[in-house]
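Build the 3D complex.
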Amino acid sequence: MVDFEIRLQEYCSLVEKELYNILNRKDSKKQVLFDAMNYSVGAGGKRIRPVLLLEFNRICGGDVRSALPFACAMEMIHTYSLIHDDLPCMDDDDMRRGKPSCHKAFGEANALLAGDALLNLAFETMLSSESNINSELKLKAAAVIGNFSGAEGMIGGQVIDLQNEGKEISEELLLTLYRDKTAALLRAASTAGVILAGGDQTKIEAADRFAEKIGLAFQIIDDILDCVGDASLLGKPIGSDEKNNKTTYVSFHGIEGAKADALRLTTEAVAALDAFEDKTFLTQLSDYLCTRKM
Amino acid sequence: MVDFEIRLQEYCSLVEKELYNILNRKDSKKQVLFDAMNYSVGAGGKRIRPVLLLEFNRICGGDVRSALPFACAMEMIHTYSLIHDDLPCMDDDDMRRGKPSCHKAFGEANALLAGDALLNLAFETMLSSESNINSELKLKAAAVIGNFSGAEGMIGGQVIDLQNEGKEISEELLLTLYRDKTAALLRAASTAGVILAGGDQTKIEAADRFAEKIGLAFQIIDDILDCVGDASLLGKPIGSDEKNNKTTYVSFHGIEGAKADALRLTTEAVAALDAFEDKTFLTQLSDYLCTRKM
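Done.
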């Protein structure tokens, strides 16, 4: 477990330094843009997507330095989606990670543009990265990331979420939403990591399966934590209510059923790692992500 | 001139068909997203950026079919920027090209996400395009487009515009704004066209010079037209006022000075075309863009 913590810390520190290098720009004419981008990217977070990309890359024989621009791109895409999600016309959240959200700190227009600029910069960073990875693989990895973060992936999930706000939805639609909104970027990071290292189709698919299951488990655990938190806050028996009357996984399966399914999904995720020789870190990461507070 | 009109029409029709192919998706769970994207991309416009890309590509020996995904990407980037520009937190425009703007037709959140999805799809389209263009050149062209459309290009220009709303600005800052907000995407399209065809550095730089000068001329002419329109509307002598008290090129040089500079810039743009063997179409395009109503 000590090795796990050290490697996790190493990855995070590499990513944060590189993000700082990419984003720390000075231009008095548009300083507010860079400040807003930096503010949100620097606001913390577990850097799970970059970590997944770097580790899948490493266990497939890739070079961490070459994969780093892609890892940073994943974090920029994740951050832009949070900035736009927080805007008044979306979730209207004033706070994010214990700090005022981007539009509260910099105004709506600047937050909108900082989000746009981060999405754009994510692609710029991948496309202009100098490394010994061949161009074919760079193109393929960036295309996969683009696909998972776009209309057929994460953005599609945001739309489904919006369309169904306050409505009762079917379990099937809920799972589609989780797959698109949460799992898509994890799948992007994991498969891109394998692709950049030249991993074969079997490994790409295994990484994809791992990330999809971890994403679902992760989201179900979020639902459980929300529900437990809310219930204890309101003095209600646990499992009797859902946050803001929102349909969640707990609505369909109750707390205990949801717990069992999250554990099953985590086990299935770990099983998908059999395609790789060195699965120690990712197994521990799954544990770290999916057994918090359960 | 007949040949010019025919080729222009051919390019536009190719681009519009391909955009339709890319965007005409059916998915009942998120249909509103595709509808909003289609609505704005299909709302018309002169398709100048795709046309520039395709023509620069052609005169450097490129194949129009292979360059088409990049041409469509340029139009998607341009359209996303208009959708976000029209949002209430930005310019708050209810109308665009004679139709309700995207957020008026589909709501703010959907317009925001349709813009995000178009930017994302622009990169997806470039990165996953199947063609005989080698991966190195595709990467380089997409990176150049990313650079011109991002924080150092178009988005930077939008921020400078916002920061200085209602303020008196220097001529230097006005020109920076025009270079970033208007010329950047024209430069992206023109240089990417050359790059995709394998054109050398001299040609890339000539295309860049052409597009920068055309972009500035274009923006100055817009200023003149706004000013003339406003003045005649208000019964004031032409040249005595600027739209919404906004500092424009006319504020510094008057109508006649602005006209002279727009003509000079157009002439300089056309001179940059000497680097290319076949400059007929682009010369006529410059004329078409820069002598309207002057």
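The domain at 2-290 of chain A is CATH 1.10.600.10 (Farnesyl Diphosphate Synthase).
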